Write a sequence for this structure.
């Protein structure tokens, strides 16, 4: 059974149609990459899944339950779906440890020692445990993004949404973040990843979806989609990337 | 940790800058030449060190001290040599009168300080409430937001002096049972209401300056609208507006003197009373000195906070 099902998802920003009847299924433990031109609606689609954006039409279910179902409670959805942003969005006035424990303490009402222990556990996964007392501005971009991923994992979500998490990083810092995502895949996390790193998408994705003007116009295994794209929009998009030397 | 595939981390074949030679069209190069540049012989030498330059160290300081002495000395000479100077001195800088008035004026100044501190606390809280109400999202809060906007428009649009007189004389004159009757109290309330309108706008600019992503991050972690405000947005907003708030603190310290018009015996009022009986203005100069004594260090502190804040922003920008 699929973990996430999206049916007929439609979203307008004002008069602008940003998502147009999107259907998508993501199985448990599956990694799906969303690619597409800037403005094609990738971030909006991702943000609909954890209700940062409320769609105008359509249905999203998580584990068979609609994400608007009251059984999720006020914070159940956020506990099961983590999201990481391109610009990290760590809280600059809080230390790394405080960034990680804020939600467990205030939302899940976890006891402080427990929350701390969990934070250390997650940070050590990413070899970041040395930085618990540091403030975000004292860290490199790659380190900040690792902390942001750690923060999203604090509540042990089933699904992780990643929105261009390497796009703001210097090229030499991209690898350390991508490696973590690889590790998370090995651990069986379900992930939906928006990325401009085509090489990475080819490597990590079980399936790649190409968005164009708010529609998923093509989806396929990465090997096929990248080597023999069927839809003209996909072909144009990929050939432009190849021409600019990015693939 | 489970190992990933055995690819070198960081190289997914993308965004890796290939050597220029691979990308450029080699057609323009003559056969036998390469695009590799010959190694340079070594960098040019560092600039020669000068021996200690006393000119560079002392001359600017000397010039500025000299010009300060000349300008202020000139002013002093100009003022004291004026024909009216002895009269001015007797009227404004009479030491005997100053000493005689000092205890009462200082007593009045204590009232200034008390009102100032209490008003500061009230303004800090009330303005924050206003700013938060104004930044609430959702159509349910529309009437509240409208009320706050109205409040701010009205109280920013009216002179503080008018409000002080209106509240300080007007409300006690109503003689409403159960309400305090002192002009000091109602004058203070007028100051708080007036200043809060400004400070609420300062707070709001600080809240607006917090990046939208911070809200998204907090909400995605499951924090409620309220928790988002308390734990994520407000701490950053307050840090943003600290320099602006420092200026308000200084301005309020002086404006407490407005209460003297409704008979509150603050430093200015006490000095006026002394002046009225002696026809000598030295008491007012004493009050002026007390105000300067309190505000100048605070203004310096505000400058320092400003500079530190600027440095922090510059640091974050790079
Ligand atoms: N909050 C919003 N209000 C109004 N318009 C928005 C909002 N968020 C996104 N949009 C618009 O919706 C469209 C799709 O945006 P979205 O961020 O989903 O694109 P994207 O595929 O993620 O692009 P990029 O690769 O640049 O991140 C864009 O035209 C954008 O301007
Ligand atoms: Mg985006």
């Amino acid at each position: 059974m699929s973990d996430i099902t999206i049916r007929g998802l439609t979203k307008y920003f004002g008069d602008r149609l940003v998502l147009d009847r999107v259907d998508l299924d993501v199985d448990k433990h599956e990694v799906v990459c969303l690619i597409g031109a800037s403005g094609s609606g990738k971030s909006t689609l991702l943000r609909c899944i954890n209700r940062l954006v409320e769609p105008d039409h359509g249905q999203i279910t998580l584990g068979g339950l609609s994400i608007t179902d009251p059984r999720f409670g006020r914070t159940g959805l956020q506990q099961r779906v983590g999201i990481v942003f391109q610009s990290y969005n760590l809280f600059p006035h809080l230390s790394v440890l405080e960034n990680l424990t804020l939600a467990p303490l205030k939302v899940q009402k976890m006891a402080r020692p427990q929350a701390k222990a969990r934070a250390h556990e997650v940070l050590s996964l990413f070899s970041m445990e040395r930085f618990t007392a540091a403030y975000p501005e004292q860290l490199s971009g790659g380190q900040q993004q690792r902390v942001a991923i750690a923060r999203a994992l604090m509540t042990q979500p089933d699904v992780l949404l990643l929105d261009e998490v390497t796009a703001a990083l210097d090229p030499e810092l991209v690898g350390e973040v991508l490696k973590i995502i690889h590790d998370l895949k090995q651990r069986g996390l379900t992930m939906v990843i928006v990325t401009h790193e085509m090489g990475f998408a080819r490597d990590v994705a079980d399936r790649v979806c190409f968005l164009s003007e708010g529609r998923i116009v093509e989806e396929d295994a990465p090997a096929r989609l990248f080597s023999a794209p069927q839809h003209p929009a996909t072909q144009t998009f990929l050939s432009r990337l190849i021409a600019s030397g990015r693939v | 940790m489970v190992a990933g595939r055995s690819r070198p981390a960081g190289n997914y074949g993308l965004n890796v800058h290939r050597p220029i030679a691979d990308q450029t069209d080699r057609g323009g190069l003559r056969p036998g030449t390469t695009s590799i540049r010959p190694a340079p012989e070594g960098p040019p030498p560092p600039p020669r060190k000068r021996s200690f330059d006393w000119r560079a160290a002392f001359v600017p300081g000397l010039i500025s001290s000299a010009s300060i002495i000349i300008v202020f000395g000139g002013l002093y000479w100009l003022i004291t040599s004026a024909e009216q100077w002895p009269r001015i001195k007797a009227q404004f800088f009479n030491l005997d009168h100053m000493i005689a008035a000092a205890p009462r004026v200082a007593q009045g100044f204590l009232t200034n300080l008390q009102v100032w501190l209490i008003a500061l606390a009230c303004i800090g809280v009330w303005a924050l409430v206003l700013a938060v109400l104004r930044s609430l999202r959702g159509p349910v809060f529309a009437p509240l937001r409208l009320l706050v906007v109205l409040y701010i428009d009205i109280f920013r649009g009216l002179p503080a002096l008018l409000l002080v007189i209106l509240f300080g004389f007007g409300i006690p004159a109503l003689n409403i049972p159960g309400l305090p009757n002192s002009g000091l109290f109602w004058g203070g309330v007028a100051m708080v209401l007036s200043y809060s309108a400004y400070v609420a706008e300062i707070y709001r600019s600080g809240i607006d300056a917090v990046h939208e992503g911070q809200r998204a991050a907090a909400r995605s972690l499951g924090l409620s609208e309220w928790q988002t405000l308390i734990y994520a947005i407000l701490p950053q907003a307050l840090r943003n507006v600290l320099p602006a708030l420092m200026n308000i603190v200084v301005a309020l310290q002086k404006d407490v003197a407005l209460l003297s018009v409704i008979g509150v015996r603050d430093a200015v009022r006490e000095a006026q009373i002394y002046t009225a009986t002696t026809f000598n203005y030295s008491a007012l100069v004493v009050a002026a000195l007390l105000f300067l004594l309190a505000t100048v260090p605070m203004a310096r502190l505000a400058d320092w906070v400003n500079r530190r804040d600027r440095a922090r922003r510059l640091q974050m920008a790079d």
Summary: The radius of gyration of chain A is 18 Å.
